[in-house]
């Protein structure tokens, strides 16, 4: 698949790049995508939720009423979850929600996500750029020329570029990552995936293994 390379002004440079069929043209595996997204979201959970149970409540330990003859159910402690102010029964406890996935499956999921974006014509390739200083207005002008001003977009760098990254950090709905930081969730979450020309080699090298 050939894609035109755009310049910083959103105009066609007259050059085209070939997107690897092994990465951008496979048969998407929906289940692999589901598992990878599920793992990503699970890893974002802190798992610090906690409710006090019966043994952790401060309260009297005396038997609150006699065992028999009241006509109601027996009750031995005011800290029971049946009473107001008592402990919570089977409440949430701290836990780790993360789980592991096979590397090949994660690689397949990312290739599937990129293929879906390619099929939807949602992948844009632009020339590598650099800013003399980190300024949000510089990155905003790039979004305007690409028609992405009010859309969720993911920009993929070939290598670390602090000026470009810092220029985008304050913009809601826009994220800049290196090719090694690509995730299935981030690809699918964006309306458009913008690949800097220098990132293609790294993406194809990482996912063609």
UniProtKB/TrEMBL annotation:
<keyword id="KW-0699">rRNA-binding</keyword>
<keyword id="KW-0689">Ribosomal protein</keyword>
<dbReference type="Pfam" id="PF00573">
    <property type="entry name" value="Ribosomal_L4"/>
</dbReference>
<feature type="region of interest" description="Disordered">
    <location>
        <begin position="45"/>
        <end position="77"/>
    </location>
</feature>
<comment type="similarity">
    <text>Belongs to the universal ribosomal protein uL4 family.</text>
</comment>
<keyword id="KW-0694">RNA-binding</keyword>
<dbReference type="InterPro" id="IPR023574">
    <property type="entry name" value="Ribosomal_uL4_dom_sf"/>
</dbReference>
<comment type="function">
    <text>Forms part of the polypeptide exit tunnel.</text>
</comment>
<keyword id="KW-0687">Ribonucleoprotein</keyword>
<comment type="function">
    <text>One of the primary rRNA binding proteins, this protein initially binds near the 5'-end of the 23S rRNA. It is important during the early stages of 50S assembly. It makes multiple contacts with different domains of the 23S rRNA in the assembled 50S subunit and ribosome.</text>
</comment>
<dbReference type="InterPro" id="IPR013005">
    <property type="entry name" value="Ribosomal_uL4-like"/>
</dbReference>
<protein>
    <recommendedName>
        <fullName>Large ribosomal subunit protein uL4</fullName>
    </recommendedName>
</protein>
<comment type="subunit">
    <text>Part of the 50S ribosomal subunit.</text>
</comment>
<dbReference type="InterPro" id="IPR002136">
    <property type="entry name" value="Ribosomal_uL4"/>
</dbReference>
<dbReference type="GO" id="GO:0005840">
    <property type="term" value="C:ribosome"/>
</dbReference>
